[in-house]
Amino acid sequence: MSLYEEKKPHSQDFFGEYRNFWWNQDFIELMAKRWCLNKVNSVLDVGCGIGHWGRVINPFLSKTCVISGIDMESESIHNAIRLTNTYELEKRFHYSVALADQIPFQDNTFDMVTCQTLLIHIKDVIKVLNEMKRVLKPGGLLLAAEPNNSASNLIEHSLSFDDPIEIKLKRIQFALICEKGKSILGLGHNSIGDLIPGYFSQLKLSDIKVYQSDKASPLIPPYHSEEQKVYLKQFSEWIDKDFLMWSYEETKKYFLAGGGILNDFNSNWENLRKSSLDFISGIQNNRTHSAGGIVFYLISGRKIQI
Questions:
Q1: For 180-234, how does the pLDDT look when each residue is reduced to its tens digit (9 = 90+)?
Q2: Judging by DSSP bridges, how do beta strands 206-212 and 296-302 pair with one another?
Q3: Which GO BP terms, alphabetically (predicted)?
Q4: Which of 14, 207, 224, 256 is most buried (most C-beta within 10 Å)?
């Protein structure tokens, strides 16, 4: 077995059950009507992971639509195929291992080319978007679902709301240094969603539209909804593994690459761990609550017909 196969699959820690609550179904239905997805007969999902995004949009596509997915991780592709079989979608869903900047399809192949939280992991976003455009048919839809993750650092909950400004700024600075380091290392920027419309313009796409998900992730005691139960289970599992922003080693790598120093990292990590444990303690006592806002864009454009 090669080193590539042995290493932990990319983003595996974020492929939990909570991903099933990322979108409000009626919002996706509305967007599908705006994009006329019922007329789409072929889709390529780039950086598909375990196939979540394809299954989200599937109910709104043509009933005969064929969905292809590519991802660099063989284990993710294996799980995407397994889940496709579980949902009895194997006749129309096809997955294979491939790189986003070397898409193994001919020019002008798909009615729609899309990605969900792929570009936040990409060094050369323009190169990947150009590849996505290349395999898109003239008049076809290019659709990117990408966030501004930096904004989440400003979302308050009941236990942090009255923290001193200095503490809040230190928390935000820590996150921003880590995000900068991740980008410097060529692993993508976590808030690249803000720039995608401009990149679409550079690619000379037409009819560029920007929408924002209407989804929030509220925490409201006594946390009886299925979504809240799943989220809290996942959050607890992350804390048990010392997986806070990322793993300890990964976060340290990003922080140092972003210009931070080791002593500052250790103190910031301990503060983050403490606040996470306080958060869970507050849950156990029905004291933690938040509206749970997010910034998640849906950005679309069409390939000009010649």
A1: 999 999 999 999 999 999 999 999 999 999 999 999 999 999 999 999 999 999 9
A2: antiparallel
A3: methylation
A4: 256
Within 8 A by CB and 6+ apart from 148, the residues are 191, 193, 194, 295, 297
Question: What tokens were used for 210?
Answer: 């920007």
For the stretch 93-148, pLDDT in tens is: 999 999 999 999 999 999 999 999 999 999 999 999 999 999 999 999 999 999 99
The C-alpha atoms of residue 187 and residue 120 are separated, in whole angstroms, by 8
Q: HSE on the CB side for 242, CA within 13 Å?
A: 9
Bridge partners for 136 per DSSP:
110
Element (H, E) at 297: strand 296-302
Q: Are residues 206 and 144 in the same domain?
A: yes
Is the model's pTM score more than 0.85? yes
- Is 264 contained in some domain? yes
Q: Print the domain residue range for 46.
A: 3-148+191-217+294-302
Are 130 and 227 in a shared domain? no
Q: What SS3 state is found at 253? A: helix
**Residue 213 and residue 77 share a domain:** yes
Paired residues of 297 in beta bridges: 146, 212
For residue 88, which phi and psi values (nearest 5 degrees)? Answer: 55, 45
Coil vs helix vs strand at 203: coil
Residue 281 has which token pair? Answer: 């303690």
